[in-house]
Design a protein that fits this description.
binds adenosine-3'-5'-diphosphate; two-stranded antiparallel sheet; single chain; globular; 288 residues; four-stranded parallel sheet; Rossmann fold
């Protein structure tokens, strides 16, 4: 299948047609955010599915029912995907969503509301590696070719949701004030209970230490691998083939070191550095 057949091109970005349509993007623009809604925003492969596990538990005090009974894509749907229109009326309150939209594509009602955002960022080198394997297992994404070829597409932004740097810049330069919280995938891997405490405080939940520990246990990489509502094993193999690479693949920090050659690293670093040079915020990782 050609790139044109696989992706919708809108707003200068690529959206996989399997999960997105003109109607779903329109639905997202018309979506009515409520003040109590929470949306976890990520560039793809930065911890989205992890947030689909975490948010319902933090919002409902650790009740396991949603993560044990509802597949993640319907439990915490993507704002921009086709499924939202089908499940929106069934969402528990307060509603939790995820989105890969850059900031400027958020709908008017989001800006008019007090809905909160948790923006999860991941080291772009690990994002690239994770995405490379995801492209191998997802039949609705283009064949990534060699790692070198895929890196070139990633750096040019010829991948779903465009350039990593544009995404991060858009969300780091908002006027959302205390409506947005930033966290990194690396923080979550390093100390999940601490990350959960921050999220719980940000969302105005006063979770006990016992509940925090319980949520951390159920959101561990291993627990999610074993949860059929979260490991994508319910998706037909024709769409997501776990034999090629599981969706919950490694769940570690620094896998890029096993993939980047000594030539690829400076190429990657210099492109990102140039694109970030005018920014006043600093990244939480060294690009080298
Ligand atoms: P890897 O491919 O590096 O393993 P997204 O959900 O945004 O598509 O991101 C997927 C990445 O998040 C995958 O990274 C996946 O393994 C990782 N991930 C998901 N749940 C996780 C968890 N509980 N702990 C650590 N990593 C997790």
């Amino acid at each position: 299948m050609s790139t044109e057949e696989m992706y919708l091109q809108r707003h200068g970005l690529l959206f996989p047609k399997e999960t997105h349509s003109t109607e779903s993007l329109h639905f997202a623009q018309e979506f009515k955010f409520k003040d109590e809604d929470v949306v976890a925003v990520t560039y793809p492969k930065s911890g989205t599915v992890w947030m689909q596990e975490i948010l319902p538990l933090v919002l409902n005090g650790g009740d396991l029912t949603p993560i044990q009974t509802i597949p993640n894509w319907d439990r915490v749907p993507w704002l921009e995907e086709k499924r939202l229109a089908l499940v929106v009326d069934n969402l528990a309150s307060p509603r939790a969503l995820v989105s890969h939209f850059p900031y400027h594509l958020m709908p008017p009602s989001f800006h008019a509301s007090k809905a909160k955002v948790i923006y999860v960022m991941r080291n772009p080198k690990d994002v690239l590696v994770s995405s490379y394997y995801f492209h191998q297992m997802a039949s609705f994404l283009h064949d990534p070719g060699s790692f070198d070829e895929f890196m070139a597409s990633f750096l040019e932004g010829k991948v779903l949701f465009g350039k990593w740097t544009d995404h991060v810049k858009s969300w780091k330069n908002t006027e959302l004030g205390d409506r947005i919280m930033y966290i990194t995938y690396e923080d979550m891997v390093q100390d999940l209970p601490a990350a959960l405490r921050r999220m719980s405080d940000f969302l105005g939940r006063n979770l006990s230490e016992e509940v925090i520990q319980k949520i951390a246990e159920h959101c561990s990489f291993k627990a999610m691998q074993d949860n059929n509502m979260s490991n994508f094993k319910l998706v037909p193999k024709e769409l997501l083939d776990s034999d090629k690479s599981p969706f919950l693949r490694k769940g570690i920090v620094g896998d890029w070191k096993n993939h980047f050659t000594s030539e690829q690293l400076p190429t990657f670093t210099s492109v990102l550095r140039k694109e970030m040079e005018k920014e006043t915020f600093s990244l939480p990782w060294s690009l080298d």
